[in-house]
Amino acid sequence: MERMSGERKARLTEVLLAEKRRLWSEVRRELFDTVGEELRSQYDIPQDVGDRGLIDTLEDTGMAVADIRRQELTRMDEALGRLEEGRYGFCVECGAEISEERLRVAPYAPCCVSCQTRREGPPSGPGVTL
Ligand SMILES: [Zn+2]
């Protein structure tokens, strides 16, 4: 497998960390603005609660959004882990590097554009079977 260049890794790290910050600010906004002060006092959440504490709190609230957010944050951690191991940003199908433009738009994209297109297949029509 190709080695990821240091420059690419640095740029992808930026992409993922920016996405992670965005995710967290959304989670915090949802947690504090949507359910508000009542919840914060109920669960005694400090303003500077750490990431893990916030996830636990999300679970405690049982909010529907919590599951989705938790999945996203888990996926993010996995992506960062793969990046650290130099496995992030490669197509799972063909092993090619996924373009940075694509990863900026879709940080969790598992495969490159051409494999994605192939996966989705041609517009379904008569006679198309898989
Ligand atoms: Zn591919």
Give a description of the structure:
The protein is an all-alpha fold and 130 residues long. It has a domain at 6-89. The chain has helices at residues 6-34, 36-43, 51-61, 64-84, 100-105, 113-120. Helix 3 (51-61) packs antiparallel against helix 4 (64-84). The longest helix is centred in the N-terminal third of the chain and has 29 residues, at 6-34. It is elongated and about 50 Å long. The mean pLDDT is 80. It binds zinc ion (ZN).
Architecture blueprint of SSEs:
Blueprint: H1 6-34, H2 36-43, H3 51-61, H4 64-84, H5 100-105, H6 113-120
This protein binds zinc ion (ZN).
> What does the oligomeric state look like here?
single chain
N/C terminus separation: 29 Å
Overall pLDDT confidence: 80
Largest sheet: none
The total of helices stands at 6
Kindly summarize this structure in a few lines.
The protein has 130 residues and is mostly helical. The protein has six helices and no strands.
Question: What characteristics describe this protein?
Answer:
single chain; 130 residues; mainly alpha; 6 helices; 64% helix; 0% strand; binds zinc ion; zinc-finger
